């Protein structure tokens, strides 16, 4: 029997939904690392959305830095350049805990 991409995705999704719930104290990243080969597409989606912080502090900090960066003296910076400077700044000042 030939499976279409939709039917294949439905089967994988059903298998995932049938798994028992993850305990609150367990690390979801570890859970997905263990199942990377079984659910490759779902794993990529999980990594994409699990990296979103559950707080507004990083975004507020970013807006503050952007306000300091784009002042009267730097009003001709192109948006792409501002994005690059903010990215480099956040990458260099971020505390690594892993």
UniProtKB/TrEMBL annotation:
Every HAT C-terminal dimerisation domain range: 13-90
GO molecular function ontology, one term from the record: protein dimerization activity
Domain of life: Eukaryota
Coiled-coil annotated spans: none
InterPro entries on file: HATC_C_dom, RNaseH-like_sf
One Pfam family in the UniProt entry: Dimer_Tnp_hAT
PANTHER family according to UniProt: HAT C-TERMINAL DIMERISATION DOMAIN-CONTAINING PROTEIN, HAT DIMERISATION DOMAIN, C-TERMINAL
Identification of the protein by name: HAT C-terminal dimerisation domain-containing protein
Organism: Parnassius mnemosyne
């Amino acid at each position: 029997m030939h499976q279409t991409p939709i039917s294949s995705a439905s089967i994988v999704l059903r298998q995932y939904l049938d798994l028992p719930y993850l305990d609150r104290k367990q690390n979801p990243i570890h859970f997905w690392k263990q199942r990377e080969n079984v659910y490759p597409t779902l794993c990529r989606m999980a990594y994409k959305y699990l990296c979103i912080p559950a707080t507004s502090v990083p975004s507020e900090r970013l807006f503050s830095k952007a306000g300091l960066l784009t002042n009267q003296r730097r009003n001709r910076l192109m948006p792409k350049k501002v994005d690059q400077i903010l990215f480099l700044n956040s990458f260099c000042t971020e505390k690594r805990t892993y």
